[in-house]
Amino acid sequence: QTTDSKIDKKQSGLQTTDSTIDKKQSGLQTADSKIEKNQSCDDTLAELMRHYLPETDKNNVNDNSNNYIVNDTHNRGEDSDESCTK
């Protein structure tokens, strides 16, 4: 029984190591969410347009983005972060 209890302690030690890794991963997620909050909706939208839309569509999309920016600033409030994801 003494030998078994030593093995159990070692296994619980492994679990503690795993929980430490989980804490580090949650720390990374916190850093990512802080970066996302620092970026405004307008910057994110402009960045998406630069990378993913063909050159020929940029004029039309810029008009749409101006409408989006006006609507976003009009609705901006305590939940302005959530408006980025909608």
Number of strands: 0
Query: Runs with pLDDT <50, length 5+?
Result: 64-75
How much of the sequence is in beta strands? under 5%
For the report, how would you describe the main beta sheet? none
Give the domain tally: 2
Distance between the first and last residues' Cα: 58 Å
Biased composition (Low complexity): 61-72
Region (Disordered): 1-36, 55-86
Biased composition (Basic and acidic residues): 1-11, 73-86
Task: Pick out its properties.
86 residues; mainly alpha; 2 domains; 81% helix
Description:
- The chain is mainly alpha-helical.
- The protein folds into 2 domains: 1-38; 40-86, no CATH class.
- It has 4 helices and no strands.
- The protein has helices at 2-38, 41-52, 58-74, 80-83.
- The model is unreliable at 64-75 (pLDDT under 50).
Please write out the topology.
Elements: H1 2-38, H2 41-52, H3 58-74, H4 80-83
Brief summary of the model shown:
With 86 residues, the chain is mainly α.
